[in-house]
Specification:
With 217 residues, this protein is of the alpha+beta class. It is built from three helices and nine strands; from the N terminus they run H-E-E-E-E-E-E-E-H-E-E-H. The two termini are 18 Å apart.
Length: 217
C-alpha cells in the first residue's frame, strides 16, 4: 500500500509540475545513489545494508529569471534524526551545486544551500520542510531569490543551471560528500507530454486498485 501511495504521489507531482506558467522554465532532477561521485552504497553503522535512498525534484525559473522555486521529495534518508534508530542515514545538509566544468563524474562547490550549512534561502526565507508522517524521508521546498547565494547569485549561475552543469545534493552522516544526487535538467516538450500522459494513466490505475482493495466495484 505504501509503495502504491508513493507511485500515486510521484505521478500526480509530475502532472502538476509539467504545466508551469507561461514564460516560466521548468527543470527536474532524479536523485540516486549512483549519480554521486563516487557512487554510494548506503549501510547501517554496523555494516549491514539499508534501503537505497532516492528522490526527485522540480524547479521553476520565473519568466524574468530572477527567482527559482523548487520542491524535492526524498526517501530512505532520516530527515529529522528520529525516523530510524541508526545514525548513518541522518540528513546533515542539502544544496544546489554548480560549475561551468561540472560533469556527471566530477563535483562542484555549493552555490545555494537550503538545509543545514550553508543556508542561503534567507532573503527572504521561503524554506518549508515536511517530514513524512510515516516512513523515512520528507519534502522540501523554497525559492532561490536574486539576492541569495553561497558567494554567488542566481544570475551568475543561470547558464550553469540551464546547460546541465548543476545538480542537487543531499548529504548524510555516512556520506558527508553526498548520499543522493540528481543532475538538474531541462526536459524536452515532447518528454513532458509523455510524462504527463503516463502519469494520468498511473493515477487512474492506482485509484482503481485502491477502490478494489476497499471492496468497491
Amino acid at each position: 500500500m505504501l509503495q502504491l501511495r508513493i507511485v500515486l504521489f510521484i505521478s500526480l507531482f509530475v502532472v502538476l509540475a509539467s504545466t508551469p506558467a507561461y514564460g516560466d522554465t521548468f527543470l527536474f532532477a532524479n536523485l540516486t545513489n549512483s549519480q554521486e561521485n563516487p557512487p554510494t552504497t548506503p549501510t547501517l553503522s554496523g555494516g549491514a545494508t539499508r534501503p537505497a535512498s532516492f528522490g526527485f525534484a522540480t524547479f521553476t525559473l520565473n519568466a524574468a529569471m530572477t527567482a527559482m522555486t523548487f520542491s524535492a521529495t526524498i526517501f530512505n534518508i532520516d530527515v529529522t534524526g528520529t525516523q530510524t534508530a541508526d545514525t548513518f542515514d541522518n540528513l546533515t545538509a542539502a544544496h544546489i551545486h554548480a560549475s561551468a566544468t561540472v560533469t556527471p563524474t566530477t563535483n562542484a562547490g555549493v552555490v545555494w544551500g537550503f538545509f543545514g550549512a550553508p543556508f542561503n534561502d534567507n532573503n527572504p526565507n521561503d524554506f518549508v520542510f515536511t517530514p513524512f508522517a510515516t516512513g523515512v524521508g520528507g519534502t522540501f521546498s523554497g525559492k532561490w531569490d536574486a539576492p541569495e547565494g553561497n558567494g554567488t547569485t542566481l544570475t551568475a549561475q543561470l547558464n550553469n543551471i540551464l546547460t546541465g552543469h548543476a545538480y542537487i545534493n543531499f548529504h548524510t552522516t555516512q556520506f558527508g560528500g553526498g548520499e543522493i544526487r540528481g543532475a538538474i535538467q531541462t526536459p524536452e516538450p515532447s518528454g513532458l507530454i509523455l510524462l504527463g500522459t503516463g502519469a494520468v494513466s498511473l493515477i487512474g490505475f492506482g485509484w482503481r486498485r485502491l477502490k478494489i482493495r476497499a471492496g468497491e466495484r
